[in-house]
Design a protein that fits this description.
249 residues, alpha/beta, eight-stranded parallel beta sheet, 12 helices, binds 2-phosphoglycolic acid, isomerase, EC 5.3.1.1, cytoplasm, TrioseP_Isoase_bac/euk, glycolysis
Length: 249
C-alpha cells in the first residue's frame, strides 16, 4: 500500500503572531508540493492569522496541543471545538516536551487522542524513548506501551486515519538524528504493534512519521524507508530548509 507522506512542522514556543504570518508567507512558495500533506503546527495564538496567511495554499495549519474536556473551568487550556471552529484538522498530542514539562502521561494522551477523533481532528500522536531507555535496550517495549495506551478504545476506523510520530527524545533538538536503520526499525515495530491491536489493514493505513533533528540533508533517506511516512520537524521547520524537506525527492 502506498501511503501519502505527511510532513509537519512543529513550531513549539517560537514566533509571535506577526512573525508567524511572515514565516508562513516566506515558506509558502517553498513548501508547494501537492504530492504530500504539509502541516504547520503553530502556537495557539497564531493559528488564526496563520490560517489566513495560508489560504489558497497546500499548507494546513495544526495545533500543538488540545485539552480533553469540551469546555469549562480549565484555565489556560484550548478546547477541541475552539480548534475545529477555525478549521484546524491536525493536533500534536503527547509531544515528549509536554510529557516532560507539563506532566502529560499515557493516560492523558489517550484521553486527548479520543477527544480529537470525536471532533474529527487528526491527532499526531507522539512517542519516543529516552537515551537511557535506548541504552538499556527497552526502546521497543517502551514504545509499544506508549502506543497501546494511546490507542485504548480508539476504533480501527479512527486509527487508520491517525498519524504517529516516532521521536526519540535524545534526537530532539540535539542535532543527533537517529540513523535511518534505527528510525525504520522502531517505525516498523510501531506498525506491527498497530497490527496486533487492530488488523493488518489498519497497520498498513496508519501513517508513521519520524521526528528528531530532521534536516534537508537527512529527510530523503529517512522518508524513503518502507515504514516512515514523513516527518515531524522542529528546528528546521522555522527555516527555508523546510521547503527542501517537503520537496525531499
Ligand atoms: P527537532 O524537533 O526537529 O528540532 O529535533 C522535533 C520535534 O520535537 O518535533
Amino acid at each position: 500500500m502506498s501511503r501519502r507522506k505527511i510532513i509537519a512542522g512543529n513550531w513549539k514556543m517560537n514566533k509571535t503572531p506577526s512573525e508567524a504570518v511572515a514565516l508562513v508567507n516566506e515558506l509558502k512558495p517553498l513548501v508547494a508540493n501537492d504530492e504530500v500533506d504539509v502541516v504547520f503546527c503553530v502556537p495557539a495564538i497564531s493559528i488564526i492569522p496563520c490560517m489566513e496567511a495560508a489560504k489558497g495554499t497546500n499548507i494546513k495549519i495544526g495545533a500543538e496541543n488540545m485539552y480533553f474536556e469540551e469546555s469549562g473551568a480549565f484555565t489556560g487550556e484550548i478546547a477541541p471545538n475552539m480548534l475545529t471552529d477555525v478549521g484546524v484538522k491536525y493536533v500534536v498530542i503527547g509531544h515528549s516536551e509536554r510529557r516532560e514539562y507539563f506532566a502529560e502521561t499515557n493516560i492523558t494522551v489517550n484521553k486527548k487522542v479520543k477527544k480529537a477523533f470525536e471532533h474529527s481532528i487528526t491527532p499526531i500522536v507522539c512517542c519516543g524513548e529516552s537515551l537511557e531507555q535506548r541504552e538499556q535496550g527497552v526502546t521497543i517495549d517502551f514504545i509499544r506501551q506508549q502506543i497501546k495506551i494511546a490507542f485504548l478504545d480508539v476504533t480501527a476506523d479512527q486509527a487508520k486515519t491517525a498519524v504517529i510520530a516516532y521521536e526519540p527524545i535524545w534526537a530532539i533538538g540535539t542535532g543527533k538524528v537517529a540513523t535511518t536503520e534505527q528510525a525504520q526499525e522502531v517505525c516498523a515495530a510501531i506498525r506491527v504493534c498497530i497490527g496486533e491491536i487492530y488488523d493488518e489493514a489498519t497497520a498498513q493505513a496508519i501513517r508513521i512519521q519520524y521526528g528528531g533533528s530532521v534536516t534537508a540533508a537527512s529527510a530523503a533517506e529517512l522518508f524513503a524507508q518502507p515504514d516512515i511516512d514523513g516527518g515531524l520537524v522542529g528546528g528546521a521547520s522555522l527555516k527555508p530548509d523546510f521547503g527542501k524537506i517537503v520537496n525531499y525527492k
